[in-house]
Write a structure and sequence with these properties.
Number of domains: 2
Largest sheet: 2 strands, antiparallel
Helix content: 55-70%
Order of helices and strands: HEEH
Structural class: mainly alpha
Number of strands: 2
Shape: elongated
Amino acid sequence: MYVRDDPNNPGDVIDQANEAAALFLGDALAGAKRKAEAERLALGEPGWHCLFCDAELIELGRFCGTDCSADWQREQDAKRRNIKVSG
């Protein structure tokens, strides 16, 4: 007879571990999706000026280079931590 949570049935432990892993994975994916959506909204649509230094862009985009992109991200992270960034 099959009894759920039977310590003598190793399949129960494996099933529970798989269920827990699926829940953790689902939560992680949902969190990553929310973060990506928030960043997309914060960035807005691509434009003709760098979002960090306001330099004019040659083609439609968000940043003039990787330095500005990294600096912008660092600034956003600091704002989320409520730390003022001098610059």
